[in-house]
Amino acid sequence: MGLENILPTYHRSPTKLPISLNKLCRSKERVLLGFVCFGLVVACFGTVFFLPELRTGIALPSLNSVYKVYEHVQKVGPEFILQLPPLAKDDIHEGKSQQHHGQIDKPDFHLLEDQARLRAKIETEERLELEQNQLKVLPKPMIPSSKSETGVSGSTTQPDGGIKGESSVTVRDQLKNRLPMVQGGGDLEPDIRAKRETVRKMMKHAWDNYATYAWGKNELRPISHKGHSASIFGSGNFGASIVDGLDTLYIMGFMDEFKRGRDWVEENLNLTGVSSELSVFETNIRFVGGLLSCFAITGDSMFREKALHIAEKLLPAFNTLTGIPHALINIGTGTSKNYAWASSGSSILSEFGTMSLEFNYLSDVTGNPVFRQKIEQIIQVIKKQDRPDGLYPNYLNPKTGRWGQQHISMGALGDSFYEYLLKSWLQSAKTNDEAKQMYVDAMDTAVGKLIQKSNGGLTYFAEMKFNRLEHKMDHLACFSGGMLALGGTHLEEPLKSKHIELGKAITHTCHESYDRSSTKLGPEAFRFSDAIEAKALKSNEKYYILRPEVIESYFVLWRLTHDVRYRQWGWEAVQALEKHCRVDGGYTGLKNVYSDEPTQDDVQQSFFLAETLKYLYLLFSDDELISLDEWVFNTEAHPLPIKKVNPLYRGKFVKYSDYVVYNVFIHFKMLLMTI
Question: Which of 36, 56, 171, 433 is the most buried (most CB within 10 A)?
Answer without folding.
Answer: 171
